[in-house]
Amino acid sequence: MICFRCHFDRYMALSCRGLAVAQPYHEERPAAQHHRVEGSTRRARMPVNYTNRKGLTYTLYRGQTKTGKPRYYFGRAGQGQGEPVTELPPGFTISESVNGVVSLVKDRPSLIQPEEVAAIEAAVQQHPKARQYRFAVKHDQIEIYEQVGPDYDTLLGELQTFGLSRTDLAERLQAHEERYARYTPVLRFFLLDPTRRRFGAQRMCYRGSIDGWLELVQTGPVATLASALIPTLGTDQFFELW
Prior knowledge:
Helix content is 24%, strand content 31%. It has helices at residues 2-16, 114-125, 152-160, 166-180, 222-229, and strands at 36-37, 48-51, 57-64, 70-76, 83-84, 92-96, 102-106, 133-137, 141-148, 182-193, 198-205, 212-220. The N and C termini lie far apart (46 Å).
């Protein structure tokens, strides 16, 4: 039981580490439209509320910059420092990042085609550890994110070695992972030629001289790049890509 407690506490700590400070991921794509403007002209208008994938509800507020211009942002109930907004400003939409960060962004059409998104999704789903990865479609690029910390399947397997029931822990650990897991960008595909649908690729590099996005030499259709690069995620081969 002591060993189980150590492993479980370690998992909780790693999973919740990034919860206190929201990371600045900014997706320039409309989020799933489960937000709504409550109320109508016949009754008091209610604020714009949005519930993210983690089950947290945010309200849209309006404040002012130092120059007096309006500034819009989402905050939790009771934590806003501005005036609640009852409708989205013209030309803007709600965006939610892979990590559940909610923001207001300019509403502009994506340059990525549905079949290109489908190719990325298929490649991610075929990865042996697909549960550890998410992807986000932005204006002219698609980013792949990797889970930070121990994954659900690995932890569950370790706990079983101590004689703990999979049935007792599976649902609780999975729900915990869905709400608290953090993801960091590791690979992205960006559109080079909208006419020929040619893409380039970049991977995250952690070497001191670069420490950021490293552009790769491969270019071509995104389906071709995805089938060649996504399988290397989580392997030593990924760090050999140039």
